[in-house]
Design a protein that fits this description.
This protein is of the alpha/beta class and 224 residues long. Helices cover 36% and strands 11% of the residues. It has 9 helices and 6 strands. It has a 4-stranded parallel β-sheet. Strands 1-4 form a two-stranded antiparallel ribbon. The longest helix has 16 residues. The protein is globular.
């Protein structure tokens, strides 16, 4: 695994790359990709960072694990590549977007346009073995992505963190709430959404309102 990450992140993350746990993680991922089918493809592992430079980060959405079905994961949490059927959580995200802002349901589930505007779509674990959810958890990725959240919290101001579901909410302790905003709601998965924990959260309009209040350009959430 080459750490093919946007230059803007390197001054902040180089210390992590040099730590023993990260070197062990790289070896583990290399071995997994050599011996098993894994997702996303190697060149997409750091896609979240490559489409959202450190300087551009204004919103962070935290996911847990990449999709483990064929052709789904593209390195951004909740996102799928063009032409791939939308997974249930993404369907509910788009339904909420429709309700909140009145945008038509998009054809593509590719969230790269959000990332390109400064939305860091960060999975806690950046790789997974095909058809084996959670197979690359507790190998070092969480330590790395926790460090990413802490660095954003320490080095930037007025970032909006969207914490969807119990797993994401645990990351709250890494964020300085005196200088950043946090919006919390249930997970967009059907299990949570059908119990009333997701729909009506209006996180998309609330995020833009928070960005406007601090003079930061808003996110164009509408996907073509």
């Amino acid at each position: 695994m080459n750490v093919d990450i946007h230059q803007s992140w390197k001054p902040y993350l180089q210390a992590e790359f040099d730590k023993p746990y990260f070197k062990d993680l790289v070896e583990f991922v290399k071995m997994e990709y050599t011996t098993h089918k894994c997702f996303p493809k190697g060149s997409d592992i750091f896609n979240a960072f490559n489409h959202c430079s450190f300087d551009d980060v204004k919103v962070v959405i935290i996911g847990q694990d990449p999709y483990h079905g064929m052709g789904q994961a593209n390195g951004l949490c909740f996102s799928v590549s063009d032409g791939i059927a939308h997974p249930p959580s993404l369907i509910n995200i788009f339904k909420e977007l429709e309700q909140d802002l009145g945008f038509p349901y998009p054809k593509s589930g590719n969230l790269i346009p959000w990332a390109d505007q400064g939305v860091l779509l960060l999975n806690a674990t950046l790789t997974v073995r095909a058809h084996q959810a959670g197979s690359h958890q507790n190998k070092g990725w969480e330590q790395f992505t926790d460090a990413v959240i802490q660095i954003i919290s320490q080095k930037k101001q007025n970032v909006v963190f969207l914490l969807w579901g119990g797993f994401a909410k645990k990351k709250k302790k890494l964020i300085n709430t005196a200088i950043h905003s946090i919006l919390e709601t249930g997970h967009p998965s059907p299990l949570s959404a059908n119990r009333g924990y997701w729909f009506g959260n209006k996180h998309f309009s609330k995020t833009n309102s928070l960005l406007q209040q601090v003079g930061v350009s808003v996110i164009e959430w509408q996907l073509k």
